[in-house]
Amino acid sequence: MRPCRRSALPSPVPTIRYYESIGLLVPPARQGGQRVYGEQALGAIRLIRHCRDLDFSIDETRELLASVQRCVPCSETRTFAEKHLGAIRAKIAELRVLEATVASLVSGCEATCSGSVAPDCVILQSGCGPHSAPS
Known about the structure:
Elements: H1 13-21, E1 30-31, E2 34-35, H2 39-53, H3 58-70, H4 74-112, H5 122-125
């Protein structure tokens, strides 16, 4: 094995160091003071990157890495991904509600603010009523 050049790594070096520090990756052997990543380690880094790109949490990524190491059936991975998909869909639904709320406030501002000062703005007043959370 030869030391891996930074440009050949599938993730930035600080990110890889972080993954090592939290136990997601095993720190590799060193050669001449440089870390030496074998194909298995590079594969794990690529998998972690893929999982993070799909917005799996660190703990979920840890589980997925372990499932690869244990060679669990694909059906278990699919079930895991289906649960994640459900969470993504719930988040999208929340974001749609948020989008509608902000769009309504912007429309209200366009209709009523016409050059008034910020304290009078509909957008800022909407959170200042008796039902708003204390600051």
